[in-house]
Amino acid sequence: MQKVLFHSTIFGPIQSRRLGVSLGVNLMPNDGKICSFDCVYCEAGFNAQGPGKDGIPSREAVKKGLKKKLEAMKAEGSALDVITFSGNGEPTIHPQFKEIVADVMRLRDLYYPEAKVSVLSNATMAGKLAVKEALMKVDNNILKLDSAIPASMRAINQPVASNVIPEGVISDLKAFEGKCIVQTMMLRGEHAGMKIDNTTDQEIEALIAAYKEINPRYVMLYSIDRKTPEENLQKVEKDELERIADRIKAAGIEVQVNA
């Protein structure tokens, strides 16, 4: 079974194809996964691997670990483009997410004021007031929408809660009033005997309608780049991503393709 990638609360820096030199903040366990989605393409594996035994890191542990790492990087003269909330699950699930975001931004201002703070989120908690307030303060509020069609969202993202539907996610994203980036993974393949393909005309048209409603800063299109827990998935190549991006741009929406 494919398992979690990150075995520390602060990890990297790594070269992100989307964000540049990125220092990661993992608010989920170091030895397991906790997520409100169970995406077929998640590089951290399926939720079935369990939450592990370490538990989620405390606010103080995150602050202490990040301070130590930033001090060391600054002393070495290392470059840093972004501090990114990512890791072994959904960061906004952490009960002190809002407070941790405030700590991270203060440390960023102290050590690397030119660096951005980004959050990679599946948007399932975006309607929660404390989470929304925190996301409104970060530089890059990056929220997932892989499909605007209910059956496809269930097949691709496999939400843990049965009441998570595209309409609710779109409504929550719309409430950010443009202060968000929408991230969409394009893929096709099969999982549990079900065909998956969010590149069809029907899917693209539904996504464009959703993007128009959300009115994000821009849409971030990408596809599979690493091993996935479901092996029967196919990467959408750059030329096809570009063609999809052109359709979205024609609707007046800015798009960034990351291939």
Question: Layout of helices and strands, plus pairs?
Answer:
Blueprint: E1 10-16, E2 20-26, H1 59-76, E3 82-86, H2 97-111, E4 116-121, H3 129-135, E5 140-144, H4 150-157, H5 166-174, E6 181-185, E7 187-191, E8 194-197, H6 201-214, E9 218-222, E10 233-235, H7 238-250, E11 255-258
Parallel strand pairs: 2-3, 3-4, 4-5, 5-6, 6-9, 9-11
Antiparallel strand pairs: 1-2, 7-8, 7-10
Describe the structure.
This protein has 259 residues and is of the alpha/beta class. It contains seven helices and eleven strands. An eight-stranded mixed β-sheet has the order 1-2-3-4-5-6-9-11. Helix 2 links the parallel strand 3 and strand 4 (116-121). The mean pLDDT is 95.
What proportion strand?
15-25%
Name the poorly predicted regions.
none
> How many beta strands in the DSSP annotation?
11
The chain-level mean pLDDT equals 95
Major β-sheet, in short?
A: 8 strands, mixed
Strands of the biggest beta sheet: in what spatial order? 1-2-3-4-5-6-9-11
What value does the Rg take, in angstroms?
18 Å
What is the terminal-to-terminal distance?
26 Å
Which descriptor suits the 3D outline? Answer: globular
The percent of residues in helical segments reads: 25-40%
Number of helices: 7
- Which structural class matches the secondary elements? alpha/beta
Order of helices and strands: EEHEHEHEHHEEEHEEHE
